Amino acid sequence: MTVSWWRHGIRAGVLASAVAIAVGCGAQPPVAVKAITAARRAVSHKTIPEVPVRVVFSRERAADGSVITIARFTGSATYVLHDGSQDPGALVGHVKAGPKITGAARGRLVAAFNGGFKLSSLAGGYEQEGHVAKPIRAGLASLVIDTSGEARVGVWGSGVPVAGERVYSVRQNLWPLVSGGKPTKESALWWRWGGTIGHAEYVARSALGENRAGELIYAASMSTTPADLAWALAHAGALVAMELDINPEWVQLDAATHPGGPLRAKIGGQDRPANQYLTGWTRDFITVQAPPRLFTSQVRDHVRGQLRQVAQDQARRRERVRGGRVLRAGDRDHPAAGCGRGAQPVRRILDRHARRCLNPKPLGRRQVDVGCGLAPGDLLARDNGGERRA
């Protein structure tokens, strides 16, 4: 479902203005600033999303006690393979998705996680945006991303790529960890799954699978085995899975509650900070994004949630006790009294101040000067001296 930029802009503007009105004549609280910022981002996109992108988290405990974090990416997610500053580095040539997440990609970012082994380990091929750094090899587990951003996991030459698929990027790493919904026999041979620090069996490991619905599932732990990862992914519904990078320096998953939101490290004991992929990283990684056409709805939902919170807070603040009498927004001696009877119809206020809320300018102590001292639940349209609910 799509709508025009104008229609969505007005909708976002109304939301932003309602936040400002909830603030009233006082200083603007941080929650309103955040909501208005989100609304301002929303008007730069032209369509309203149909299926929100979410990250569903769970934890699996293996028989040996290993705790594995599971992240399932739902909705109309798109995926981007990013080049690392050192690996693949110059081998892949000039590509758009580099060592850090910037620009519009940051605004649509939902999650980011590590790629595979260094290319010098000969664990498989690497292709990004049509540039081949290492030849793609048949029979190896592969993450395949097409030109639309859709991704799938499978064995190259036996399931992927599908007929007619316009391949954009490919990341290979060893052989399958899960096949046919079950752990492979090789998953029990931990020494076959990469060199570890101190040649230890229990180290930080990560993997990526795909379930029957076509959703990708990421699994990781700071201390586990390939067999545990395979079991956890199969238990989470993966039909096929591949191992990604290992050892504590490289295993990383960061996610936000909504597109463009602050990232949080999601693996227990994770070494790398949550903003590592924003500041730049040496190795390849994958981002999960809401497409432009889906981005605005999630921002809208986030803003509405902020509005509800602001309305509740303002409802409590509007009732003040002075001399044993409860003061309400309409009273002459209430702090917001200067915004009362002479107020314009709220609908016109919303329309007039929509653009100002989306592009606020410093106005002394009042960041957004929309006036009226009314919470969203008390918006009144005043016509010819009368009052009616907006």
Structure explained in plain terms:
The chain is an alpha+beta fold. It has 2 domains: 5-48 and 296-389, no CATH class; 54-290, no CATH class. The chain is built from 7 helices and 22 strands. It has helices at residues 5-23, 30-42, 103-108, 226-235, 276-279, 292-318, 346-358; strands spanning 54-61, 67-74, 78-82, 109-114, 126-128, 131-134, 141-146, 151-156, 159-160, 167-172, 176-179, 182-183, 203-211, 216-224, 238-246, 253-255, 264-265, 285-289, 320-322, 325-327, 380-383, 386-389. The strands form 5 sheets. Strands 1-2-14-13-15-11-12 form a 7-stranded antiparallel β-sheet, with helices on one face. The longest helix is centred in the C-terminal third of the chain and has 27 residues, at 292-318. It is globular, with a radius of gyration of 26 Å. Mean pLDDT is 78; it is low at 1-49 and 335-390.
Topology:
Layout: H1 5-23, H2 30-42, E1 54-61, E2 67-74, E3 78-82, H3 103-108, E4 109-114, E5 126-128, E6 131-134, E7 141-146, E8 151-156, E9 159-160, E10 167-172, E11 176-179, E12 182-183, E13 203-211, E14 216-224, H4 226-235, E15 238-246, E16 253-255, E17 264-265, H5 276-279, E18 285-289, H6 292-318, E19 320-322, E20 325-327, H7 346-358, E21 380-383, E22 386-389
Parallel strand pairs: 8-9
Antiparallel strand pairs: 1-2, 2-14, 3-18, 4-16, 4-18, 5-6, 5-10, 7-8, 7-10, 11-12, 11-15, 13-14, 13-15, 16-17, 19-20, 21-22
